[in-house]
Amino acid sequence: MATIYDVSVLAGVSLATVSRVMNNNTKVSEKTKQKVLSAMDQLGYRPNTIAQSLASSRSNSVGVLVSQLDGPFYGPMMTEIETALRAGNKHVIIAAGHSDESQERDGVDFLISRGCDALILDVEAVDDEYLIKLHQGNTPIVLINRYIDEISERCVYLDNELGGYLATKHVLQHGHKQLAYISGPMFKLDSKDRLLGHKRALTEFNLAFEQELFYEGNYKEQGGSQAMDALLKVNKPFTAVVCANDQMASGAIAVCLEKGMSIPEELSFVGYDNIPFPQYISPKLTTVNNPIHEMGKMAALWVLKHVYNDPKPIVENTFSPNLIVRDSATKPIS
Amino acid sequence: MATIYDVSVLAGVSLATVSRVMNNNTKVSEKTKQKVLSAMDQLGYRPNTIAQSLASSRSNSVGVLVSQLDGPFYGPMMTEIETALRAGNKHVIIAAGHSDESQERDGVDFLISRGCDALILDVEAVDDEYLIKLHQGNTPIVLINRYIDEISERCVYLDNELGGYLATKHVLQHGHKQLAYISGPMFKLDSKDRLLGHKRALTEFNLAFEQELFYEGNYKEQGGSQAMDALLKVNKPFTAVVCANDQMASGAIAVCLEKGMSIPEELSFVGYDNIPFPQYISPKLTTVNNPIHEMGKMAALWVLKHVYNDPKPIVENTFSPNLIVRDSATKPIS
DNA sequence: CTGTTAGCGCTTTCAC
DNA sequence: GTGAAAGCGCTAACAG
Fold first, then answer.
1. CB spacing of A72 vs B72 below 8 angstroms
2. DSSP-derived 3-state class of residue B225
3. Is residue B24 part of a domain?
4. Is residue B333 part of a domain?
5. Distance in angstroms, CA of A16 to C1' of C16?
6. How many domains does chain B have?
7. For residues B28 and B82, what is the distance between their CA atoms, to the nearest angstrom?
8. For residue range B25-61, what is the model confidence (pLDDT) as tens digits?
9. Comparing C-alpha atoms, which of A153, A89, A148, A129 is closest to residue A306?
10. If both were cysteines, with which of A145, A169, A214, B293 could B76 make a disulfide (CB 3.0 to 4.6 Å apart)?
């Protein structure tokens, strides 16, 4: 591999000059510039980014830590982050936190020790305090899907309370009065917020929240199925099920279909997230749109703007959910 | 940030000794080792991996280039790769190729210039020749989902022809005689192979391949829907649809359900890949298992073993598909 | 077992 | 506008 030294020799200039034309931030005469460029070309020169990083103490890489790499939720987010960052010629280094506190901390350490210029985090197990402290360190961070007052300008998030409210209000407006609720894991902030919104809607319609018809799921299809099984055994009728995400809604609906129930006639469903798949099942799932890919993009743009000083990006950090009405929720029977 | 120098001063030893305890590949007396360790601890020392890379010309990072980051297919693969590599303390740098030749090449260049120690590639647009040449370069590569004879030991792949055969044979054994086939994009090798297997099964049952009942899809839900619409308009009856992947099968089934057809009674379906979601739709999809996550893991282990000389991993590189029988295919209506 | 020393390839003052 | 030279933080011979 040719080095900057080889180029400088071939071009008959100094190392510094070659470096200058690479970074073209200093003035170099057009003539020498061409000499250097053609020398680079002849040698098939490619800068060693590791050496650049060491010398400039910038790695041009940003670390992304998400709970999982798979699933309908994180995939699109990663896609947007990678696209935006690569367009800015930055590298994406990934790590998974698996919703586990020590793994999340490990991931962060891992990424920092790799010299990432910034971190984009979608973490849920570590507490606010940890993140606030992290924020005070040398590596800038931006949080996706989380809101912490003290570092609000670093948060890109969705108003989950509003989403929960919209979903529930939708079935309430159809006349349902007995609702079951399948939540996400309650240690997650978004689970809590969605539930809060659910309760607000209930209150608005003068309905009480029924603890017996509440089931704490795990945001996965299987969790939805389990929840549905449990709910069906409760000795309390309900005509609609509000699910804290689409995956659980799908699992729950599958159980009902299996039992020969007709959906939505016998039981209405609303999901949350608007992941692609449930559009293709029958009935098509009514849900709340979660612009997760937009949020990923915004996090990346934030980094480009504030860490790499790219003046272009316009960054916004709060997103609002909206209802997507399809076929899984209708009027209650009778 | 404390450097190795600070540690050496505090511990009262030389730089080299500190370096030795970090890499613990050379003998260091227990006593000095402890001194160094405690000095590191006191300083909260973290090695600068960039500097390590430059000095050792190993970046401890492996580049992963996939078509897309999202989707039910690549997510699980990425997860396994990240998990396996991180367990070996290696970093994963990702890039997306979007099934586009120039983007795939860019991605490779990008990853190489970042100093990756190895590349794991799931590419489909670049040709074999390019990959063979790449293989001859300095950065070791391993290919997922692709087989090239000249570099077969670098390929981790699935026998797609066999999978195609199994899927089709399954419906044929149920007595179907008129099959429609929705393929993936024909420029992709796996599409071709699956189709080949399909044709082999047909031949085995003395049936002709009907060009009119063939539709080239795009491996996406929507493509499946379009395909189904088109197929339904063809003036030729069929009782089963073999789909080259689950996503298209789901899209196709959705169209039928929408039209009020009962599946599988009126029309049988088989998919391919065994992605998680279609287990939760009704009817549950009969499909061919594609151990994509295993393949991701194997690619990672290959790198650990051959690039980083970890003696542990046992690597196998060819995988066989197997049929997963669920509810979407049954006997034809006589 | 431990210290000395020469780089890894590039950026960045500081002169000229 | 261009060159010389001092590192960035660490590894890896080479001595001892």
1. yes
2. helix
3. yes
4. no
5. 15
6. 3
7. 32
8. 888 899 999 999 999 999 999 899 899 999 998 888 9
9. A153
10. B293
List bases, strand C, within 7 Å of protein CB. 1-13
Residue B273 pairs with which residues in a beta bridge?
A: B289
Mean pLDDT across chain A: 92
Whole-angstrom distance, CA of residue A228 vs CA of residue A254: 9
Q: Please say whether the beta carbons of B157 and B193 come within 8 A.
A: no
Residue numbers in A near B112 (CB within 8 A): 46
Chain A CB contacts of B110 under 8 Å are: 86, 91
Helix or strand run (H / E) with residue B159: none
Of the partner residues A79, A276, A279, the one whose CB lies closest to the CB of residue B96: A79
Element (H, E) at A326: none
Beta strands A61-66 and A91-96: pairing type?
A: parallel
CATH number at residue B274: 3.40.50.2300
Phi/psi for B251 (5° steps) reads: -65, -40
CA-to-C1' span, A29 to D15 (A):
48
> Does B332 map to a domain?
no
**What integer pLDDT is reported at residue B325 of this predicted model?**
96
In the predicted structure, residue A77 carries a pLDDT above the cut 70: yes
Helix (H) or strand (E) holding A12: none
More confident residue, B114 or B145: B145
Give pTM, 2 decimals: 0.87
The answer to whether residue A323 is domain-embedded is no
CA atom of B209 to C1′ atom of D13, Å? 68
Asked whether residue A296 falls in the same domain as residue A152, the answer is yes
Cβ–Cβ < 8 Å for A92, A85: yes
- With an 8 Å Cβ cutoff, are A280 and B48 in contact? no
User: Which A residues 37-76 touch B at CB under 8 Å?
Assistant: 46-51, 53-54, 59, 61, 68-72, 74-76
Q: What's the CATH code of the domain at B38?
A: 1.10.260.40
Q: Does A291 touch chain B (CB under 8 A)?
A: no
Closest alpha carbon within chain A to B248: A280
Phi, psi dihedrals of residue A91, rounded to the nearest 5°: -95, 150
* Contact residues on chain A for B276, CB-CB shorter than 8 A: 221
Q: How far is B224 from chain A (nearest CA, A)?
A: 10
Closest CA to B87 of A103, A317, A256, A65: A103
pLDDT digit string, tens, across residues A265-316? 999 999 999 998 887 777 899 999 999 999 999 999 999 999 988 888 788 8
Residue B297 and residue A270 in contact, taking contact as beta carbons nearer than 8 Å = no
Say yes or no for a CB contact (<8 Å) between A280 and B254: yes
Residues B77-91 have a mean pLDDT of 89
Q: Which pLDDT score is estimated for B334?
A: 64
Identify the three-state secondary structure at position A184: coil
Check whether residue B273 and residue B205 sit in a common domain: yes
Q: Which domain holds residue B92?
A: 59-158+292-318
B92 phi/psi in degrees, rounded to 5? -110, 120
Do B72 and B92 have their domain in common? yes
pLDDT tens digits for B175-185?
999 999 999 99
CB atoms under 10 Å from CB of A135, counted, come to: 17
A281 CA, C3 C1': separation in Å? 70
The position carrying tokens 């939720």 is A73
Angstrom distance, B301 CA to C2 C1': 36
> For residue A105, what are the contacts with CB-CB under 8 A and spacing of at least 6?
A126, A130
